[in-house]
Amino acid sequence: MAIDTGRRQPYRDRHGKPRPRPADGDRSIPVTGPLDGRRAVVTGAATGLGAAAVRALSAAGARVVATYHQTEPDDGAGAAWLQCDARDAAAVDAMMDAAVTRLGGLDVLVNAAGLWQQGVPGTITAADIDFLIGTNLKTTIFTNQAAHAVMRRTGGRIINFGSAEAVMGSPISAVYAAAKGAVQAWTRSAAKAWASDNVTVNALAPAMQTRGAERLREFLGPAAAPLIDQQIKASIPLGGALGDPDRDLGPVLVFLAGAGSHFITGQLLAVDGGLVMLGG
Q1: In sequence order, what are the residues at sequence separation of 6 or more whose Cβ sits closer than 8 angstroms to the Cβ of residue 35?
Q2: How far is Cα 217 from Cα 250, in angstroms, rounded to an integer?
Q3: Phi, psi (5° rounding) for residue 35?
Q4: CA 86-106-135 angle, 5° bins
Q5: What residues have CB less than 8 Å from 82, skipping those under 6 apart?
Q6: Which residue from 32, 223, 266, 267 has the fewest beta carbons nearer than 10 Å?
Q7: pLDDT in tens, 24-59
Q8: Positions marked catalytic
Q9: Contact by Cβ (8 Å): 201, 230
């Protein structure tokens, strides 16, 4: 049990070594972040979870190259931007080469390229399947492989996005759930394949208030809003509401991108206020 002696604790750098404590208001001694010196690529970063990842990693000290496909990014997001269609393997390889040249290497990939779309069993077309597999699974495989080709020499962290819908099933977004289930299976397989290279691969299943959550409301229509709110309140023990990407997801991304997560790989981690309690 820690005892407060009233003394100020030694000021330490990011390696835990004692260093002089800067005086109040003194900025001559910089305070480093937990990801200081880390080099990261974030795909699908113009909006939603990807944009939150850029903000979190940048604020933690990482240098970030972020990608977008069609939606123009926010210039003030704290990243260098590259346009890339992550469904195209050649485009992904070219993007990764450009990012590594700019950063001087690669330590972290956050693959946030993906999209929710409704799909009720019995109404699903071949085009629906091709679109969602391309947007969610191909993007994951292509970006992960391109990142590993760099990280295999020095190690690194790969973070993908799964979904609670892939765990629980979804009667209104069945192909999306299937695609994310494939992402989760890929994450486990890549984690086993690349562990010897000191490359960890994990996936997050977040329940956040994003544009994807709004698409669900739009699909079901305004009459369903009270029912959606009721179900969310009953299903999420912590707060009864979807999380905020910056407040609730950002710190998890920073942890997984950092040194403290070195012994975690192949996992699906739910960041959802208790919506899906994995394991057991």
Answers
A1: 57, 60, 61, 62, 108, 254, 257, 258
A2: 24
A3: -115, 20
A4: 15
A5: 65, 66, 67, 68, 95, 98, 99
A6: 223
A7: 444 455 568 999 999 999 999 999 999 999 999 999
A8: 176
A9: no
| pLDDT tens-place string over residues 171-218 | 999 999 999 999 999 999 999 999 999 999 999 999 999 887 787 788
CA-to-CA distance for 53 and 56, rounded, in angstroms?
5
83-92 long-range Cβ contacts below 8 angstroms, 24+ apart: 84/43, 86/43, 86/44, 86/111, 86/113, 86/138, 86/139, 86/142, 86/143, 87/134, 87/135, 87/138, 87/139, 87/142, 88/142, 89/138, 89/142, 92/142, 92/143, 92/146
Q: For tokens 């009270």, what's the residue? A: 226
User: What gap in Å lies between CA 33 and CA 246, rounded to an integer?
Assistant: 17
Cα–Cα distance for residue pair 159/193, rounded to 1 Å = 15
Bridge partners of 111, per DSSP, are 43
- The token pair at 164 is 């609670």
Give the ranges where the chain is alpha helix by DSSP (H): 48-59, 89-103, 126-132, 139-151, 164-168, 174-194, 211-220, 225-235, 250-257
Q: Are strands 199-206 and 39-43 parallel, antiparallel or unpaired?
A: unpaired
Strand 199-206: give its sheet, edge to edge.
Answer: 80-83, 63-68, 39-43, 108-111, 156-161, 199-206, 268-271
Mention every residue, 6+ apart, whose C-beta is less than 8 A from residue 165: 173, 176, 177, 180
Residues lower than pLDDT 50 in the chain: 1-17, 19-27
* Cβ 57 vs Cβ 40: under 8 Å: yes
Do 172 and 118 form a contact (C-beta atoms < 8 A)? yes
Token pair in block for residue 271: 């960041």
Distance of alpha carbon 48 from alpha carbon 44, whole angstroms? 9
